[in-house]
C-alpha cells in the first residue's frame, strides 16, 4: 500500500544552543557508547509532507550529547535521531518530560529511550512486534516444510496455530489502544497495523474512533484520519457507491440494474491466480443461492489488450452472472472508487445497497449467504 505515514513504515553532546556551564540539566540527555568525539547527532521532526527534517544538532563529546528544550509544543510529537553516518534513524515521542537516550552505534533502530510513559508504551509495543514477527517467520518456515514434505495435516495445524497467535497478538495491541486513547502512540499503532495488513480499514476506523484529546490534533493522527476518511465510503455499514460499465457485449450495465436480496461486487482479473482459484467457490455459491435472491456483478481489472482473455476466463470458469470492465487494469475508476488495491476483493450488499461484509472467501461466503438467505 502506498498510503499513510512514512513514520509508520519506520516503526518496522553539546547542543548548538549553548547552555550555562553551571547548568547540567538538559531536556534530552544522550549516551553514545563507542561513538567518537565530534560525531554529529541530528534531531528530526516530520514536516508537512511527513518527511523527517533536521531541527537541531548536537555533537558527541566523551560519549555524551544533549539537546536543550525546543519551542513549546501543544501536544506530544514524533521525533527521530539520526547521525551523520548512515541513513538509520531512531524513533521516539517528545512531550514535556525530559528524556534519556542511549544510542546503539551499530543500529540506531535498536537504541533506547527512557523518561516518559508514552515512550515506554511505544518501545514495549516494538518489542512485542519484533517477537510476533519472529514467531510469524517460524510459522511460515514450519508450514512450508510440512507442505513440501506432503504432510497436509501438519501444514494445516501450523496454519491454525499461526492464525491463533496472530489473533492473540492483535487483541493485545488493541488493548494498548483502548487503554491509551489520548496517547500519540495509539495513533501510530493503528497506522502500523494497517501497514502490516493485520487489520482492514473497517477495524482501523473502529479503533480510530476511540482516540480522544490532543492526540487528534497531531499531524500523524490527522494524516491517518485523512487516509481512513477515503475508505469510510466503502466501510461496512456504508451505502455502496453506484457505478456502471460495459458488459462483454458492449452494453452499459449499472449496479442498480443487478441488485438482488444480496449482491456480491467481485473485483478480479483473468491474470489473477488467487481470483481464478476462488472462482469455483463463488460459482458454487451462485448456483446454490441465486434462486433465493443472490446476484453477482464482477468488475474485471484486465488490461486494455486483454479483452479476449477476459471473455475466455468468464467462459472457462463458468461465471454465469453479470460482468463489466473498462480494461484499464489498476486505473479502473470503479476500483479507485472502492479503494481496491489488491484482488480478489469483494463487497457483499444487502437489498438496500448497504455494505454488510467484505472479502468473504471459501466457506465464509457460504456461511454468510446461508445466514442471509
UniProtKB/TrEMBL annotation:
GO terms for molecular function: antioxidant activity; oxidoreductase activity. GO terms for cellular component: cell envelope. Keywords: Cytochrome c-type biogenesis, Disulfide bond, Redox-active center. It comes from the Bacteria. It is found in: Cell envelope. Residues 234-373 form the Thioredoxin domain. Its main location: other. GO terms for biological process: cytochrome complex assembly. This is Thiol:disulfide interchange protein.
